[in-house]
Amino acid sequence: MEYRSTSYMIVKFKPISDVSSDLTVQVGSSSFCLHKFPLVSRSGKIRKLLADPKICNICLSNAPGGSEAFELAAKFCYGINIEINLLNIAKLRCASHYLEMTEDFSEDNLATKTEHFLKETIFPSISNSIIVLHHCETLIPVSEDLNLVNRLIIAIANNACKEQLTSGLLKLDYTFSGTNIEPETPLDWWGKSLAILNLDFFQTVVSAVKSKGLRQDVISKILISYTNKSLQGLMVRDPKLEKDRVLDVECKKKQRLIVETIVRLLPTQGRRSSVPMAFLSSLLKMVIATSSSPSSGSCRSDLERRIGLQLDQAILEDVLIPINPNGINSTMYDIDSILRIFSIFLNLDEDDDEEEQHHHRQFRDETEMIYDFDSPGSPKQSSILKVSKLMDNYLAEIAMDPNLTTSKFIALAELLPDHARIISDGLYRAVDIYLKVHPNIKDSERYRLCKTIDSQKLSQEACSHAAQNERLPVQMAVQVLYFEQIRLRNAMSSSIGPTQFLFSSNCHQFPQRSGSGAGSGAISPRDNYASVRRENRELKLEVARMRMRLTDLEKDHISIKQELVKSNPGTKLFKSFAKKISKLNSLFSFSSLKPSFSGKASSESRFLFQRKRRHSVS
């Protein structure tokens, strides 16, 4: 048998007889000089083509596997032993099907041998099945007509779920035995090998393993591995680098197709998803970078929804979404996308509020309800605090964009409800940065911007900074000083009469806060109780500061009295002492307090008043 290629290379095999070749087979660009009898005895297709004895040339242009597969099949027809292995099994199985080398024409034919190899070596192994499936990509449509592709995918799905079940049983054994060491699971390595498949085969395999019940975290790892390898490092998280990258139009289309397919294959979304936030954010950035228009499609909407559902797991880098390079917006970041993402999280938070309150009304008494609402470490409370901090950091970052409009900034700042921020220092910092970068904004916009800050929630350091900040409107500085004075007065009242402070009807000194601006009747029990706890903590800190100030004033008082005793008091010294006494009186402001003290509160106030008189000038 002779093999003749287009380069006129002749490969000679040991002939069965001295008879010269009587058949030339053209396969692609290669020609084979063969004998009719060995081929007709095993191949039904060649037997049909040689029905006329006069034919001595045939063409097999559509032979799967090309000349390499046909050469191996021809050797088999001549009785030469061929090696069936992992790399050629797909070609040989498709070639045997194409040439009709079945048991109908010869016993123990090539189709039988390849089927036996598939069942014994390929189908039981996930990795082997993936490699053979990858080789089937170039053998379509024969590999699909043969049902080889479908059988390989089913084998991968079944074996993956068997491994998962075995791994779960091993974990149970370790748990019941009291051993803390968990068995190693070989799930990741075969998942990474799926990256060699084309997009269509990969999608079919993932759909199959999902239908068989493969865990969502394993599916997420498979999708991440495939995305990283198929996009070849083009998932750049830095928007500046992504802007400068020039991508070919066809390359963009391919990337967009990959991302859209991956998004469709993502596991079912929930508040606690197995898909990492960084991966979702990278997909959204890739969708925006490769989109031909700034309008958001279903893929973008799905990603924004998924990010919003688990926004409490995000970091600042995840929400710095770059704008569409083809859009007309001149800002650095996509503000509209972030508005939608935060709104999804807040709407979910409100839905959870309604469900939780309904659940408590049905199954729990009032004491248990208050306890749950009070819990500062509850998952829901910690989530909203994380999101509020994320929002403040995001505002501080985008505030440095010179093209950011005031209306966009205010829309983001006012998006969170009032109870989401315990302290407004982060929002104050963002506003201050914006005013510094945008010094020429109108006074009306400056005033609207500062109205987003709750002056009552500023720390003492932030209040001191705001009072001296020339970029803020005068109204803002006055408001900060006013609330600082009220806080100081309330702290002193608490230190003088704690019982009266908690139960007195004079509650107008402590302005109520509500998230929506409605009256106190609209405040939920959870928000009201949590607000009281926060105010109590703040007041305790203020009381401690006031006690230190009171101690300093008493020391000053004693030192002045000693100076008066040692020397004859002159007019100047007496006036200085009188001023300090008046400061003490205005600080304690006993005249403004009601005389109807009771119990421990009145005894403490009398003691303080007597001590004050004892230090006065007689």
From TrEMBL:
Report the coiled-coil segments.
529-556
The gene name reads LOC104738794
- Pathway listed: Protein modification; protein ubiquitination
Ranges for domain NPH3 come to 188-487
A Pfam family found in this protein is NPH3
Q: What name is this protein filed under?
A: BTB/POZ domain-containing protein At1g03010-like isoform X2
Tell me where the transmembrane regions lie. Answer: none
Keyword Zinc assigned: no
* Signal peptide extent: none
Alphabetical list of InterPro entries matching this protein: NPH3/RPT2-like, NPH3_dom, SKP1/BTB/POZ_sf
SUPFAM superfamilies listed in its UniProt record: POZ domain
**Family membership:** Belongs to the NPH3 family.
List the keywords (alphabetical): Coiled coil, Ubl conjugation pathway
Record PANTHER family: OS12G0117600 PROTEIN
